Amino acid sequence: MRKTDRFQVHGKGNSLWNLYKTVSFFKVAKNFMVIQISRYTPFFKAKNWLYRTFLRMEVGQHTAVALMVFPDVMFPERIRIGKNTIIGFNSTILAHEYLIDEYRIGDVVIGDEVMIGANSTILPGVTIGDGAVVSAASLVNKDIPAGAFAGGNPVQIIYTAEQRAEREKNTLKV
């Protein structure tokens, strides 16, 4: 189960309709501008600086966030990415979800030396362990253990760290 905090919404409309009771319009506008600049920035150092400085995200050394990646626009400070990690082209990292009667907010923790394939979506409250690999176009709706290979929609563990190590060992023998 994902680790999210749940907040009931009362009054007129659904939870997204009441968005600016949840988060400041000016915060969202500033975050959106910074994210749009960073989506097109091909320089990883500059992009990571933008994330750290203006979005208050934790981003580790030598992490490469590819073009068009979209971190959460409302709560980017709830995203932590470890060192030497790759986030693939056009992926989305969400720290919030707005439903009809409630909204949920959760930390996203991506470990060190993680590889996330292009066009993946990571939902709030998920932890991806060190050394894990997530295949392209995956919907990460649950935790991924360290060293595992996972993929699909919804994501499934394809190989555990031990199975992956054994597979790689056998591949090297050939």
Automatic annotation (TrEMBL):
InterPro entries named in the record: Hexapep (IPR001451), Trans_hexapeptide_repeat (IPR050179), Trimer_LpxA-like_sf (IPR011004)
Keywords, comma-separated and alphabetical: Acyltransferase, Transferase
Pfam families for this protein: Hexapep (PF00132)
Listed GO MF terms: acyltransferase activity
Gene3D superfamilies associated with the record: Hexapeptide repeat proteins
Domain of life of the organism encoding this protein: Bacteria
Record keyword 4Fe-4S present: no
Protein name in the entry: Acyltransferase
Organism: Sporosarcina jeotgali
